[in-house]
Amino acid sequence: MTAKEILAKLVSFDVLSKQNNLDLVNWITDYIKQYNIETVYVYNEEKTQASLHCRIGPAVDGGIILSGHTDVVPVKGQPWDTNPFELVEKEGRLYGRGACDMKGYLACFLSVLPKMVQADLSVPIYFAISYDEEIGCLRAPELAEHINSYYSEKPKYAIIGEPSMMQPIVGQKGVLYVETTVNGSQGHSSRIEKEVSAIHESTRLILWLENKMKELASNTRNESFLPPHSTLHVGQIKGGIATNVVAGSTVFQWDVRSIPEDSITDIVNDFQEYCNELQEEKRKIFPDFKIENELLHPPVPGLQTEEDASIVDLVSEISGNNIPSYVAYATEAGQFAEAGFESIICGPGSIEQAHRANEFVSIEQLNLGVQMIENLVEKISI
Fold this sequence. Notes:
The chain has 382 residues and is an alpha+beta fold. 32% of the residues lie in helices and 23% in strands. It has helices spanning 3-11, 22-33, 103-111, 113-118, 140-150, 198-219, 264-282, 310-319, 333-338, 363-379; strands spanning 39-43, 50-56, 64-69, 88-90, 93-95, 125-130, 157-160, 169-172, 174-183, 187-188, 231-239, 245-246, 249-258, 290-295, 303-304, 325-327, 342-345, 360-362. A six-stranded mixed beta sheet has the order 1-2-6-3-7-17. Strands 11-13-9-14 form a four-stranded antiparallel beta sheet, with helices on one face. Strands 4-5-18 form a three-stranded antiparallel beta sheet. α3 packs across α10 (363-379) and α8 (310-319) packs across α10. The two termini are 25 Å apart.
């Protein structure tokens, strides 16, 4: 099958994060097994979702992991011009949810599988396909660890195919999503000074986050990133029941995107310390005032691969792009790096197309992705 044909099939699976992905994973497995390659599943506790990995080539040290995820973000409320779960070709572009982020990369390396099994590889190639990436890169750590423990040999490299316009990416920011719940007192708005408004106190917390970002920007910068500092951003807030009622509760969600020089844990701990101080102060007015912070996923580490690392030389050669770059979005690359693999991001399509209506990957980019994998096969063939 061609990359385009495989991509059409992958896009047809309407699998969002947290949803059962077994039909999709089973289809990939059936395709791989045609070439006498066995796959290994890493299930969730309920066995309704699974990551998979497999090895093509000899069981020797020094192999390369090709990694991508199966889940996509929702389409509800987006103004799509086509069915998002049907691959549509128009003017050299392939439209569909996940075409760019990142089923296009999966299609690239799956389409080259026949050449992999025919080649006399000096080191193995591994496929590593995860789920629940879009809600906090939840499953990559266990997938990487499973690969480390399952095979007797040790892979050396990991190429994570997030859309980068086939540019080698050696650095990414870390990320964490947090939900903050504020419990205040309800009452008539004319008594605001006798009550503790959850909305008013939430604004103090949000202002603290903004000021913290300014502090971080002043103290620590990494000019490789845009913006060149860690960021804090509030994306959702809900609270209050009426204009003339002091708000009894508020919930807001925010994220941290940290440069490698800053610690996400330290930032969250500093915020918690401020919450404790504010809570103590406001309980003098309303004893049940409470601020609770919930991490919506474990912190996702950033990536900082040295530009002279051997993985950079390899990917520069096979991709044809020799200028490493940096991105502000998070991927599973930092997690594969933490597992001991030299890691890099390089994949077809632009991040500008990810998560939006009418997402697409150009046929040119898809072909370049295939060419990179074919070049890899040729590079490591005896």
